[in-house]
Amino acid sequence: MQAIRTAMAAMHQRSEAIPPVSPAVESLVRQVIAQVADKWTMLVLEALEEHGTLRFTEVGRMVGGISQKMLTKTLREMERDGLVVRTVHPVIPPHVDYTLTELGRELSAAFCGVWTWAETYYAEVSAARKAFREREGGA
Amino acid sequence: MQAIRTAMAAMHQRSEAIPPVSPAVESLVRQVIAQVADKWTMLVLEALEEHGTLRFTEVGRMVGGISQKMLTKTLREMERDGLVVRTVHPVIPPHVDYTLTELGRELSAAFCGVWTWAETYYAEVSAARKAFREREGGA
DNA sequence: TCCGACACTCTCCTTTTGGTGCGTATGGCA
DNA sequence: TGCCATACGCACCAAAAGGAGAGTGTCGGA
């Protein structure tokens, strides 16, 4: 069934779906979106937005339920993408601070709408899931 | 290093980081966010918002670069969560339509800010990545 | 004296994600 | 007669995500 893929690719190259922006920009935007539309990124963003500068373990506490591995990775990626600044204080028990950049704060503001949506409609999503289960799943 | 995890869990249970909302709601909201903050979900949402009602292959074309498996899965989850309506026309070459619900349109609107952010700042993200590479990576 | 704390890194392991390709039902078209 | 198109489900497989736990280096406190 690669016919569908071929058709997709062809259509995509001809960019029928996206007339206003160039394919290159589209691709970059999608890359950024895919990177940024991540659960942990969103959560860390929220934590830093709400509490300002935090150190490693504090971010972990605020986010809750994240492993150090994922925390390190997420923070590194956010630093790479210019969303946070990482400040290392070369003292003997290590001390590292993380702060949102302007870019990070902007993104946080943009995600605010999604948070609001989730808080506003999570009950409806639950209801929809229940209805779906009863319609297709259990019955 | 499960000390950190234990501390996190304890803190989280005591919900020091999230005073305004109850932990149960928080958990649900996070679940919804995690579900919805997905690359394909965002892309499908965009496609349906922009083009209205589409059928399976059309969604695939609009999104671009998605396999049928992921398309099916994403669409099913969105249907389950009440974001799209799936209408099956029982004709012999199968015909299935997908349309956003009001909930879906609201979410799409909420994500609009993130899209705008990405379009506005993708160049800065690229620059930040380049700088980071030069700082830590290659040099 | 010896453990804990910080901010990681590294290894091992399981789970999830995602791709490819095959099957399917059948009316319409060649 | 026989192949195509639609919207999938299913099986198999590779790759990536993600968690658990151990190691690190030094210093201050018990």
Overview of this protein structure:
The structure is a homodimer of 139-residue chains. By secondary structure, chain A is mainly alpha-helical. The first copy, chain A, has two domains: 1-36, no CATH class; 39-137, Orthogonal Bundle (Arc Repressor Mutant, subunit A), CATH 1.10.10.10. In chain A, 70% of the residues lie in helices and 10% in strands. Chain A contains six helices and three strands. Chain A has helices at residues 2-14, 23-36, 39-51, 56-63, 68-80, 102-137; strands at 54-55, 84-89, 95-100. The first copy, chain A, has a three-stranded antiparallel sheet. In chain A, strand 2 (84-89) and strand 3 form a beta hairpin. In chain A, helix 3 packs across helix 4 (56-63) and helix 3 (39-51) packs across helix 6 (102-137). Chain A is globular and about 60 Å long. Residues 1-20 of chain A have low confidence and may be disordered. At the A-B interface, helix 1, helix 2, helix 3, helix 4 and helix 5 of A face helix 1, helix 2, helix 3, helix 4 and helix 5 of B. Chain B binds a DNA duplex (30 and 30 nucleotides) through residues 1-5, 55-57, 67-73, 88, 91-96.
Blueprint (SSEs and pairs):
The structure is a homodimer of 139-residue chains.
Chain A: H1 2-14, H2 23-36, H3 39-51, E1 54-55, H4 56-63, H5 68-80, E2 84-89, E3 95-100, H6 102-137
Antiparallel strand pairs in A: 1-3, 2-3
Helix pairs in contact in A: 3-4, 3-6
The structure holds a DNA duplex (30 and 30 nucleotides).
